[in-house]
Amino acid sequence: MRWLVGWSSIAASFGTVGAVGAPGTEHEGDTVQPVGAQLLWGDPDPLWAVGDWRPDEVRTVSVDPFTRLAVLGCCGATDEELKVGLFAARGGALRHLTAWPGSYTAVVQTGRRVTIASDLAGARPVFYTPWANGTAYATAALPLADLIEAQLDIGHLAALLACPDVPEALRDGTPYAGVRRIPPGHALVLREGSREITGYEPVASLAVAAPQVDAERAVDAVRDALVEAVRVRLTAPRHAPETPLPDPGPVPGMGPAERRARRRGAPVPGIGSDLSGGSASATLALLAAGLPGLPGTVLGHGTGAGERLLAVTFNDLAASSARSQESELAAELERAGAIAANPRLHHVVVAGAEEALPYADLASGPLTDEPGPSLVTAERARLRLSSGSADHLVGNGARQVLDAHPARLADLLIDRRRRHILRPATALAKAEGASAHSLLVPLTVYRAARRLARTSYRSGIEEAAGRLTSRGVVDASGPTGALDASLEALAWSRPGPAARWLTGEALAEVSVRLQESALRPASVQRPGEARARAALARHAYDHRVFEQAAEVRSQRLHAPFLDNQVVRACRDLPETLRVQPGARAAVLRAVLRGAGVHELPPGWGAATPHTTSSATAQAGIHAAQDDLLALFDAPLLADAGLIEARVVRKAVRAAASGEPVPLDGLADLISTELWLRRLISRRGTCWTGSAAPRQRAVAGGVPQRRSL
Predict the structure, then answer these.
(1) pTM of the model
(2) Exposed (0-12), middle (13-18) or buried (19+): which is 520, by Cβ within 10 Å?
(3) Which residues are CB-neighbours of 140 under 8 A, at least 6 positions away?
(4) What is the pLDDT of residues 22-66, one digit of tens each?
């Protein structure tokens, strides 16, 4: 895990040596310092980079000793552009710090003022906590929790399980009491210990729609942003794994590609990409393989002189064994193979059987900064990624930035654009199948969208708070089809899939959180825009946990769809274009067409059926049933009063036997319990020095059951 950490204080020299939890000056041996840190600048407001950062991922520019900028991550700005951004930030124009291509975190120091900008999606978050008469900040929450010896915030864990995509329930909290998160699209400004959180991105009004950009111009902007995002990764210095595993030599029945796919541990040098057969990963792979204009390439094409892009496709043997999924997976593999016929792509198919099912090998794995559902699929992802390259492109985030959230239909009604609802409603009717009920689907969708458009923010949040305490709603089995899921999404807020297994006490506490949020003044957005941004923030949160859980040594995962400039370009897409069926595939086709790719295999852009992932998750639960039951024999979540162990064990048995159970909610519960066990069993701390904290985070363990 890589992170940066620093602090701002009132005094010119931060803290007093000898005080518990307070550092000394930089030149004294008693100072508090992060373990294994690289000092970027010193007192009075020091900044460190911690972890296995590459040399080109840490860049600093300075005008004088107290006017300087640090950029950590993959940033496409030149040194001159960094200096221009530094001067702009000194004048208060923080948006300039987030306008460069790539994915990075920028820290600016001008005098005693320190500014740290988070990204628009939330994949590069910033955390802070009051400490020693000042404020400490970091891009990871766990080091700050160690610094203040924080206890677990059980209320936040309850909200994370009950309403994972509702910002009003999560607020700015983290699983650690006292450690706060900066919202996406905001910056933390510190002045001699005092702090201010300010937004750098304009927010759409509830009453007045933002000016609509022409659809063709908006798609061109998305193309330019995606091309530039991929170009930044291609032009960055190449890195080889530190300890590459040797090729075992000829193996009967296996060629070089198959032997490489079987090797585990270190990725191959160069750049690669996922190639699942879907539209997002295929777009990135084709852009990276044939991006024109790169220096040193043959005829200006390709990823390098004579170099081919490594495209990795995962073949799920366990899921394909089921006849109901065999045709779907075969079609996806066929599309991936057709795309990989490009001579600038080197295709590797990684086969995974039972060892790659979800919930496999839960006993091993790193401690992530926060809990996330990817903890239960980490081994599956690691199997695929270890056969990739040192720099690997993934299509995560494409659905969230390009697709239309169902709640955007209410925004269209607010703008009096009723006719644009007809096509998505008709598509939902077709998805439900031919029946007498399907004739009423467009009217049902229109009524739900109109109800949301006429519901105020406060009323919507209060209604959501009431639903949490209604056992009839919480005990429901959840959406069973595309129509049910869309109707559930046409609300200001809704319970998460794991809410049905939480105790009444935990749900009541989350309900109180929502009611308090409804009473506080807030910058209210339009319902569709607000829900879409919340969904993107939730996905970016999960992607960050995924990066840490499935991390392969010497490898960097790149998600260009979550870059700031790509998110901005996608936000300018007209809502009337977004809501049309197949809009994401149409936009990505236009992106590839503008980059010179015109031929795509039949079925490209088709949505991956949810039944495939559900069948895989169910097979994983069935294979790991005994381990999961043992995990919930004496769960820490039950000690905290969030669940009843017997209820969850019953749900695990039901899922393993094939009964209809919300598998996403069960994954949230299992991953949170797994994360708690790894956190409690952790040894050591992130800090060193005689004045450093003596205990690790959550030193007192998990609080016992308590009453409101």
Answers:
(1) 0.91
(2) exposed
(3) 1, 3, 5, 127, 369
(4) 444 343 445 789 998 999 998 889 999 999 999 999 999 999 888
